[in-house]
Specification:
Distance between the termini: 47 Å
Largest sheet: 6 strands, parallel
Strand content: 15-25%
CATH class: Alpha Beta
Order of helices and strands: HEEHEEEHEHEHEEEHEHEH
Radius of gyration: 17 Å
CATH topology: TIM Barrel
Number of domains: 1
Number of strands: 12
Length: about 250
């Protein structure tokens, strides 16, 4: 059964307050927009369709990876396997962190959290990943002010699932991101098109890319439409790692 966190009234209030808590802000001033296309978990189709289509256009993405999911199959279909990682890395894609077992971190003790992070980093290295795991995404988008502070000391950025774009500044402890699904495609494409007149940093995330996607994925046609819109926007397509380096050099 697919785990879906059930937010209480307390959780909803905490989420609204969290954006003001333990903020690690980066200020920037850019004249050309930046888009980071990211994949969570990640399904095999994110490689066979997502990476393939991006590679054909000279684009690179960020793959938030749970090493413990390698070789498994779930509601997203077959997931990545260890052999996929060196190829993605060699092509210039970023491998980033997402816990070892894709767990709701709000349910973990400090010791369990530390174990999840260490196991994931070690397992990715065993699978042939050579780059440092510099960036992280919260599984299910579940986090807290405490987790922002705790993980912010270990990673250069933490990505959430709060919808939005970064104009002039971003909270590195909880980056906004637009979920790109078949059900949200038109809205997100509108965000991408608007970048022509609003230089900003937009991060997009999805999961499976297949003809009959889950509610957290999109069709191959939807994904191609995203890449077409990105090219038409004139935005620079960068991994989260490279986008941060650029923003640090173009700070306000």
């Amino acid at each position: 059964m697919t785990y879906v966190p059930k937010p209480s009234v307390f959780d909803k209030v905490a989420r609204k307050l969290r954006r003001f808590q333990n903020v690690r802000r980066i200020n920037f001033k850019i004249t050309a927009p930046i888009i980071s296309i990211t994949f969570d978990d990640f399904p095999k189709s994110a490689v066979t369709v997502g990476a393939r289509e991006m590679d054909a256009r000279g684009m690179r993405g960020t793959f938030y990876t749970c090493a413990g999911l390698a070789g498994q199959t779930n509601h997203h279909g077959p997931l990545f396997d260890a052999a996929d990682l060196p190829g993605l890395e060699a092509a210039g894609h970023e491998i980033a962190g997402h816990t070892f077992s894709h767990v709701d971190m709000l349910t973990l003790s400090e010791a369990e959290l530390a174990d999840e992070l260490l196991k994931n980093s070690a397992a990715l290295k065993e699978m042939g990943v050579r780059q440092e795991i510099e960036n992280f995404a919260f599984p299910f988008g579940q986090n807290s002010a405490g987790l922002k502070a705790r993980l912010g000391s270990e990673f250069k950025s933490l990505r959430g699932i709060t919808d939005g774009i970064h104009t002039g500044s971003a909270d590195l402890n909880e980056l906004k991101s637009c979920g790109y699904y078949s059900g949200t495609a038109e809205r997100v494409l509108g965000r991408v098109k608007a970048l022509k007149t609003t230089p900003a940093w937009l991060t997009v995330f999805t999961h499976d890319i297949q003809p009959e996607p889950t509610q957290w994925g999109c069709t191959p046609q939807d994904f191609i439409a995203l890449l077409d819109a990105v090219e038409a926007s004139g935005a620079r397509v960068m991994t989260v790692r490279d986008a941060l380096k650029t923003l640090e050099n173009e700070h306000d």
